[in-house]
Every structure is written in structure tokens, then in C-alpha cells.
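Quick one, probably user error.
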């Protein structure tokens, strides 16, 4: 049976185009005989990609097409060339106020440790003076906390220290080193970078403990070669000699030439200078 829509289509086509009906009569008869249901024209549908929904603009920012309706801005903002810190041409806040002070990149944030504090810990039994003392012992005994760049040994209350100690720190003052050596102990100033210091204080956090680092910068090399501060890179011939009152002789560290000379060589240099000054004074006396 033919549908009503098919009959209507055939009648309409016969009225408007009688030749098309005559030419397609045989095909239509074959279609009826093969029991095809309805017409092909009635089953046509639009392709989903052939049309799109209407774009609704200017209906709020949540739609993504609000305000400027997808047309963007005019003028300076149309090319996205304005930096987020640009203030429209007025004096920016970074230039409006003066800068006071600075943060040095060279300065080290050492934990300061005085000798009197070490003696208190030894008297309380929290440190063993018979064994070498390292920064890990100082951290575990809670004598030093929050170690960032190391520990510096200072000489405040040095008269209260009565026990010889063997201690290794990152830096030390000359007064502290002299007092410890006077009692028969030793102070070793050793260089640590961030990695080796962390491995020294917390070795349990490393599967493989890294090797010790040596100083690279010239100022660090000179410091850790200085025997007055107990540098661990001090040459054996530059052992400090004892001066007056048990204090080490600072002449061993010859700052002017950036070298470490034995005391005998420094004495010769000093004698030459004295002879030159004496000869100059004699010349001045003769001219007078």
C-alpha cells in the first residue's frame, strides 16, 4: 500500500511536470511491486552539521559572548600588549617609593655559638668533651637549632671554658680558636655547601651520602687556609706560632700578598722594611 504522502507527491508532480510522471511510472510500479514502504522523499532528513544554532550575544559574561559580544576591545587592549603591572602611564609603585637597604648574597646565616654555652652543655652531660664534637652533635643535643649555613664559634665567655675540646664548625673567631688552643684543644673550620651540610646533619635522608665539597670562591679559599681561624686547608708549614699571652701570632697570614708564609720569612720581610725606614730617617736627619 502507498502512503497518502506518496500519493500527494505523485499528484502534485503530475500537475506540474507531466513528463516526469510518465518517465517514472515504471519505476514507481516496480517499487510498489517490491513492497517498499513510503516514498524516499518523505524519509529525507537534515544533516546535523548542515546548520548551527543561533549565536546569542550580549547576554552576560558567563556565556563568553557578553559585553563586547565577541568583538573584542578597541585601542590599546585589542592586541593584548598591556602588561598586568602597567598602571596607565602614571609613576608605577615600584618607582614611587625609595629602596632602603639590601640583602647581601655573600653573607652566610650562621648560628652563633659561644664558648660559655658549650661549657654549660658539657657540665650538664649533654656533650662529651672526650670525643670530637661536630655540628651534628650540636644539633642532636639541641645546643644549636635551625642550622641553615652552618655554625660559627665565638669567644664570648671564653674564661668559663675549662675543658679542652675538639670541635668542627663552619667558621670560628680568632678569640675562640686561641682560647681552645690554650687549653689544649683544637678548632677546625670546615667548608660545607647546602648539599653537604644537609647530608652531614641528616645522613638518614640520603641513600648515598655525597662527598665533601671544597671551596671554589677565592674569599672562601683564603678563609679556610687561614690558620688563625682553624681552617682545614691550612698548609702544614703555616702552623701559627704562639705570641704574647698565649695568643697566636697573626703574622703567619700575610694578607697583602694573599699567601701563607712561615714566620721566619715574615721576620725577614719585616727586617727589610725596618732597615728601609731606618735609612730614610738617617737621610732626613742629614738633610736637616
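Nope, works fine. Designed sequence:
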Amino acid at each position: 500500500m502507498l502512503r497518502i504522502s506518496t500519493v500527494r507527491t505523485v499528484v502534485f508532480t503530475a500537475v506540474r511536470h507531466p513528463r516526469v510522471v510518465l518517465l517514472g511510472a515504471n519505476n514507481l510500479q516496480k517499487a510498489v511491486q517490491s513492497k517498499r514502504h513510503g516514498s524516499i522523499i518523505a524519509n529525507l532528513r537534515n544533516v546535523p552539521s548542515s546548520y548551527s544554532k543561533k549565536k546569542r550575544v550580549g547576554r552576560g559574561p558567563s556565556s563568553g559572548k557578553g559585553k563586547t559580544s565577541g568583538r573584542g576591545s578597541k585601542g590599546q587592549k585589542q592586541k593584548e600588549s598591556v602588561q598586568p603591572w602597567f598602571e596607565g602611564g602614571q609613576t608605577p609603585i615600584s618607582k614611587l617609593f625609595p629602596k632602603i637597604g639590601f640583602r647581601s648574597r655573600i653573607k652566610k646565616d650562621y648560628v652563633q655559638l659561644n664558648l660559655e654555652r658549650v661549657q654549660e652543655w658539657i657540665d650538664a652531660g649533654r656533650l662529651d668533651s672526650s670525643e670530637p664534637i661536630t655540628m651534628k652533635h650540636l644539633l642532636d643535643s639541641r645546643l644549636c637549632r635551625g642550622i641553615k649555613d652552618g655554625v660559627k664559634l665565638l669567644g664570648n665567655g671564653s674564661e668559663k671554658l675549662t675543658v679542652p675540646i675538639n670541635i668542627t664548625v663552619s667558621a670560628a673567631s680568632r678569640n675562640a680558636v686561641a682560647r681552645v688552643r690554650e687549653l689544649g684543644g683544637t678548632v677546625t673550620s670546615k667548608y660545607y655547601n647546602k648539599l653537604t651540610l644537609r647530608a652531614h646533619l641528616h645522613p638518614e635522608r640520603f641513600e648515598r651520602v655525597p662527598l665533601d665539597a671544597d671551596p671554589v670562591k677565592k674569599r672562601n679559599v683564603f678563609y679556610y687556609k687561614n690558620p688563625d681561624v682553624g681552617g682545614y686547608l691550612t698548609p702544614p708549614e703555616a702552623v701559627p706560632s704562639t705570641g704574647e699571652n698565649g695568643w697566636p701570632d697573626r703574622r703567619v697570614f700575610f694578607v697583602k700578598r694573599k699567601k701563607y708564609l712561615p714566620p721566619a720569612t715574615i721576620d725577614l720581610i719585616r727586617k727589610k722594611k725596618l732597615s728601609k725606614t731606618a735609612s730614610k730617617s738617617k737621610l732626613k736627619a742629614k738633610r736637616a
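The chain has ten helices and seven strands.
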